[in-house]
Write a structure and sequence with these properties.
224 residues, alpha+beta, DNA polymerase, domain 1, flat, binds FE2/S2 (inorganic) cluster
C-alpha cells in the first residue's frame, strides 16, 4: 500500500495503460473541435449583437424608387439601393424583362449583356441606380417590330447558332453592338468583340458563322 504522495502517483501511473495512437487522436480531435467551436460561438454571438445594434450602420436600408429607360419605355419600381440592373430588370419591373439571363451573376459569362448608352455592359455588374438616366436596350428591344427579327437574331436562327440558348441573348447583344459600328467586321474582329461572352455548349463556330452572315445582310440593307 503506497504511503506517501509520490508513491501513490507512481502506483497510478503503473496502473494506467498507455494511450493507443487511436485514443490519442480521438482525444486530440475532441479538444480541437472544442477549441475551434469556442471562437466560432463567440463570433456568432458578436454578430448577433452587431445585427441588433445597427443604429450607426453605414449600410443604407429600405428601398428607393428608380425610373429606368428600358427599350424606349420609362419603367419605375421600388428596389434596394444595392440592386443590380439585371436583378431590377428580371425581378422588380412589372412585367419583368427576362431576356438578359442570370448565369454566373459575377461578370464572368456575358449572358446578362445589355446595351447602356450604346455600350455593352454586364447588367449583373451594374447597379440599377447607376443606370438611371441612361438608355438601356435589352434583347427584347433589338427587333424593329414584333413581326420581324433583327438581322443578327435571324442569322442565329438560320445558322442554328444555339443549343441550350442561355448565352444567346448576350451574344446577340455583343454581335449587334459591334456590327452596328463595324459592318465589315472580319471573323477575328467578331471573335474579339465577343471575348466577354462564354458559350458552355461550345456553339462558337455557328455563332461566328451567323455573325458574319448577319454582317453581310446588314451591309446589303444599308447599300440597297
Ligand atoms: S450573369 Fe452577368 S456576366 Fe454572367
Ligand atoms: S448555347 Fe448553351 S451556353 Fe451557349
Amino acid at each position: 500500500m503506497p504511503e506517501t504522495e509520490e508513491e501513490r502517483e507512481e502506483e497510478t501511473q503503473r496502473e494506467t495503460p498507455p494511450l493507443s495512437r487511436r485514443q490519442f487522436l480521438r482525444g486530440a480531435g475532441a479538444v480541437g473541435v472544442a477549441t475551434a467551436l469556442a471562437p466560432g460561438l463567440m463570433e456568432r454571438g458578436e454578430a448577433a449583437d452587431a445585427v441588433r445594434d445597427d443604429s450607426h450602420s453605414p449600410v443604407q436600408r429600405g428601398t428607393i424608387r428608380l425610373t429606368l429607360l428600358v427599350n424606349g419605355r420609362k419603367r419605375t419600381a421600388l428596389m434596394e439601393p444595392r440592386t443590380t440592373l439585371l436583378n431590377a430588370l428580371r425581378n422588380h419591373l412589372e412585367p419583368p424583362i427576362t431576356g438578359p439571363k442570370i448565369v454566373c451573376d459575377r461578370g464572368a459569362c456575358g449572358a446578362c449583356t445589355v446595351e447602356m448608352d450604346g455600350k455593352t455592359v454586364y447588367s449583373c455588374m451594374t447597379l440599377a441606380a447607376d443606370a438611371v438616366g441612361k438608355k438601356i436596350t435589352t434583347i427584347e428591344g433589338v427587333s424593329p417590330d414584333e413581326a420581324h427579327l433583327h438581322p443578327v437574331q435571324a442569322a442565329f436562327v438560320e445558322h442554328d447558332a444555339l443549343m441550350c440558348g442561355f448565352c444567346t441573348p448576350g451574344f446577340v447583344m455583343s454581335v449587334r453592338n459591334y456590327l452596328d459600328k463595324n459592318p465589315r467586321a472580319t471573323r477575328a474582329e467578331v471573335q474579339h468583340a465577343c471575348a466577354g461572352n462564354v458559350c458552355r455548349c461550345g456553339t462558337y463556330p455557328k455563332i461566328f458563322e451567323a455573325a458574319l452572315a448577319a454582317a453581310q445582310k446588314m451591309r446589303a440593307g444599308k447599300e440597297a
